[in-house]
Specification:
The strands form two sheets. The chain has an eight-stranded mixed beta sheet with strand order 2-1-9-10-7-6-5-3, with no helix packed on it. It has one helix and twelve strands, in the order H-E-E-E-E-E-E-E-E-E-E-E-E. It has about 220 residues and is mostly beta strands. The chain is globular, with a radius of gyration of 16 Å.
Length: about 220
Amino acid sequence: MNGIDSVKATRRLGGLIAVGALALTGCGPDSSPAHPASSASAAKPSTSGGDSATSGPNWPNSAPTGTADSGGSGSDAKAGDNLKLGQAAKIPFTYGSTKGEISLAVTSIDQGDPADLASLNLGDQVKGKVPYYIRYSVTNAGTSDLSFSSVNHMKGHLPDGTEAQDLMVIGDFDKCKSDALPSGFTAGKTAQGCAVALAPSPSVKVTSAEYWGEPFTLGKGVLWK
């Protein structure tokens, strides 16, 4: 793992990891193909602690730019771009040794019910918190075969720009399915993904989502709201 990947991995662990009773055979956005879990659902907080509280750029007070274009491939993304939900952006994509280009659009940020988390057996770790489901669309905008790659590094933000806590589910979670890109994911193919962010209370909402995968960094990625 190089220095940049190490930093990104450390920042990614600012949330919770839930291990489901049924491991996915087609992996989630943050995992390689998983082996079946050996026990019922379990979870543990990351080694870096609980909720993140890092402020991003001055996104909450800036208006999204451009026009939503959910049907197009979008323009080339730049660090700090502020887009509308549904607006696509072209992004260089790297997953292990696989390199290509994707067109990415966050299509919705849907509020869930705290009861959705009951099956994950997280207990007091999510007490009082509300899940939000960041749903996004990925299109292969290049020429490389991106089969079985995972599009991760999707982060929710609260209205004041601070980071929402991540919840990475390794297993079966019907409310927010996050399979790896399917076999035969060649030029022009499209798939849907989902990431879970946790609001600290019912009175605070997750209002935006940031993609901060390579070549971006957290707080300097592409934001949708």
